[in-house]
Amino acid sequence: MWSETHRPKKLEDVVGNDEVRAKLVAWLSKWKKGGKAVILLGPPGTGKTTTVQLAAKKLGLNLVQLNASDRRTKSMLEARVGEALLSTNLLGEKTLIFLDEVDGLAGRADFGAVDFIRESVRRSLNPIVMAANDPDSDEVKKLSGVATCYLFVRPSEDELEKHLRGIAQKEKLQVPDAELKAIAASAHGDIRSAINSLQGGAPASKDEDMTASQSLNLFFEAATYKDALRALRSYPGQPREKVRDLAVSVIRSKILEERKARALDVLSRADLLVGGMVRGGDWRLLRYLDPMLASGLRDALGDGGVSYSQEGVPWPLQLRIWNDSRKLKDIGSLVGRRTGNSMRGALVEDIPYLMLMCGDGGFREEFVRSLGLEENYAVFVAKEAGRTSRIQSKAR
Q1: 360 by DSSP, 3-state: which?
Q2: Which of 84, 128, 346, 396 has its CA 20 to 30 A from that of 23?
Q3: Residue 119: C-alpha distances to residues 74, 82, 292 (Å)
Q4: Is 123 helix (H, G, I), strand (E, B) or coil?
Q5: How many CB atoms lie under 10 A from the CB of residue 67?
Q6: Are strands 62-66 and 128-132 parallel, antiparallel or unpaired?
Q7: Residue ranges in the chain modelled with pLDDT below 50
Q8: Is the pTM of this model over 0.85?
């Protein structure tokens, strides 16, 4: 996979955010005990993690990293980074402590994680760098008093095009400038997506104006496997959103139940693939997603009968859940950890359906038990499930 083969080997190779990367290196070089931490803010795929890893390598710092897939409670933080906070090695070398996705810390008052981090910044013998996708999250707001925030943005089309041209030259691949420009434009600043498109020979028709409905309807109407694969690659959203839209479209179709069951089996395996990819950070698995969907769904759906269909949960219900209280955000964080999703992703994709299902007392009890929710959260879930059912009934 070219996205792995051509992963930056030194800090200067990272695409975009030159000024911010320079600031981080300067801060690390001058950091002293009692100094603030740094929070790197920006969307996924902008190079935050890679920058930290290469900065540590450049400055000769040992790196202690808490991965996004770990359950980051106070006890986990103490176990993983507690020793590194207050020690150096025999040669006096410092350690760089990196806490990834701090906007996804566990719910229920963060299990003490935020307070632990704030106190750690004050007493650490080593610099602490954190990363977050959502600058408006409560965790980032709570930590901003002990940290300086650096903003990462998606690389420009020109930066992406230059990077793609360098990869093409290394691979001895002749690619017209117009095609490089088209790939850079369609990637919307996502470096990994751009490299995958270059490797896969994705056509310039991966248009930035292509909508989810257009992409998936092209897929459902595709006459050949190649056309189906091209349509899936034109989908404008994230992998999990793609699987979710396909599943909703299949569920709401009027095809035979046997065909529907076979299609949903393919989609369940695709969802497991995406979940494992997100939890483990193994983006190499992405190469298998579209071929799995194109081949498996074409076989399952046969002669068609499916078209793009939007979410079945009423808009007032989705809006109510996405924007509501801290308890919902805490529950969303816990659900996201189980599904390999972010807190906001879980609020958008999972919680509306789970609250509907929690209208059943047996399911609700199992849901509360599986997440280890405290009594006040259990009461909240019961109340929210009742309110959700009423909203759903009014929408029918």
Answers
A1: coil
A2: 84
A3: 11, 11, 47
A4: helix
A5: 15
A6: unpaired
A7: 68-69, 107-110, 203-209, 313-315, 317, 319, 322-323
A8: no
